[in-house]
Amino acid sequence: MCTPTPAIADFKVAIIGAGLSGLTLALASHRNSIPCTIYEASDTPERVHGGSLTLSPNGLAAIEPLGVNSCLQAFGRSYQAVMIHNNTGKVINKLLLGDKQVFGYDGMRIIRGVLIRELATAGRERGVEILCNKKFIGVTSESKTEGVAFQFADGSRGHANLLVGADGIHSRVRSNVFPDAVEPTYIGQTVVYASCARDRITSDTAVPLGMYIGDAGAVMLGPHVPDDADYVVGLQKQYPDLGRKGWDELSKDRKMLRAFMEEGKNRWPVHVQSAMENARDESLGLWAMHVLPKLDSWVSSGGRAVLLADAAHAMPPTGGQGANMAFEDSDTLGAVLGWIVKLDGKSLDESLDFWQKMRRKRIELVLEMAMQWNKMRKPAVEREKMQKGEAFEGAATEDARIEQMRWLFDGVAAQRRQVEAWAAGNCFD
After folding, report:
1. Residue 270 within any structural domain of the chain
2. Closest by CA position to 406, among listed 96, 5, 26, 110
3. What would the mean pLDDT of 97-122 be, rounded to a whole number?
4. What sign does the dihedral 180-183-187-193 (CA atoms) show?
5. What are the residues facing 238 on neighbouring strands?
6. Domain-terminating residue out of 260, 275, 291
7. pTM of the entire structure?
8. What is the pLDDT of residues 319-356, one digit of tens each?
9. Is residue 6 a part of any domain in this protein?
10. Same domain, 201 and 176
11. Which of 120, 172, 198, 364 is the most exposed place for a label (fewest CB within 10 A)?
12. Cα 257-261-265 angle, rounded to 5 deg
């Protein structure tokens, strides 16, 4: 039975990490009248890795209430689809990224640093407290009556009703609060990415967002700014596991990163080769693909710490849903916690239990899709060995593509209905 309980007075949330999930949760919490403080280990939220990412209709719908979408449109490049090519440049498939007429939004490609900057700016303008140079050390006490206390490397301490670990795939909160949690697992694929000016790409015609699949790996190439003046180019291929220290060292070695990208470049179309050759050195970056084995729970045994986004359910970037799932997490958790500050609110334990059950079902489906998309990028000789349904297969017609993606792109509205039904007293199973 779902029984309302008295609201928690002066409910406060502490968020560890000023990344995409931490910033959007802070904005969602502010919208729901929940005071929160973000603690960031670096000296500024804007100090992030380079590259760009895809925002799909579900992610844009999740952050629509935060009032930031209009400014993001000024910096991102809108898309409706990505064309899939073989290594000679022949189109072999098409995947939908969005459609404003059908899903309410086109998809968007945007530079990660710009996205972080705009979210952080919005947070500061609305009075969200962002404290930097706060390296999380651990929880010092946790009680359902007294809340959670925690400390930082500089000796300072904090206290809140709820601590949220939004500090990424190598989460310090997870390793501290969930000591038995398995470490992230490398899936054998690595991406090196960079930016390249459009006028350095050899092509007589426009080059739309495209993916190229061949025996040398898979390449993503396309503009990520509104005027198409700058492109992202990224090569994904199999690579041995270097371990945490090895990946850190490789990420700083520009010479090795360029060698990674340009190895076998003559196997790609001429315009792809030119993008690789003219990629700017300072923009070279590395993404070793890891997934996080399924955790038994995202909520601590004491019930006053919870994991969010990559800290809870990291997935490979091949499905283009990492940032979007972070936005969905923040939207739904902010809404659920909002009931705590209302007179007819739910208990914190009940709120977190409901939120976790709802999100885990959704995440499992999205993770399965991301792994299928990853297999779609493997060389043809490997794909031929796969069973039917093991790798994502694009639909043959536009109507079929729309139906194929509807469950994903329309998912935010469905989750909001679930939250409303739960808040009204209808249990969720």
Report:
1. yes
2. 96
3. 96
4. positive
5. 189
6. 291
7. 0.92
8. 789 999 999 999 999 999 998 777 455 689 999 999 99
9. no
10. no
11. 364
12. 150
Whether 41 and 133 map to the same domain: the answer is: yes
Mean pLDDT of the chain: 90
116 and 240 inside one domain: no
- The encoded tokens of residue 405 equal 């993606």
Q: Are 208 and 198 in contact (CB under 8 A)?
A: no
Whether residues 167 and 298 fall in one domain: yes
Domain membership of residue 56 (yes or no) is yes
User: Do 283 and 297 fall into the same domain?
Assistant: no
286 and 297 fall within a common domain: no
Residue-range definition of the domain harbouring residue 303? 13-76+112-184+292-423
Contacts of 96-101 spanning 24+ positions with Cβ under 8 A: 96/401, 96/402, 96/404, 96/405, 97/54, 97/56, 97/209, 97/320, 98/56, 98/57, 98/60, 98/409, 99/57, 99/402
**Same structural domain for residues 274 and 330?**
no
Q: Domain ends where: 272, 291, 310?
A: 291
CATH number at residue 209: 3.30.9.30
pLDDT at residue 384, as a whole number: 58
- CA distances from residue 87 to 204, 205, 214, 291, 349 in whole angstroms, order as listed: 19, 18, 5, 27, 52
User: Residue 213: beta bridge partners?
Assistant: 86, 218
**Rounded Cα distance, 303 and 300, in Å:** 5
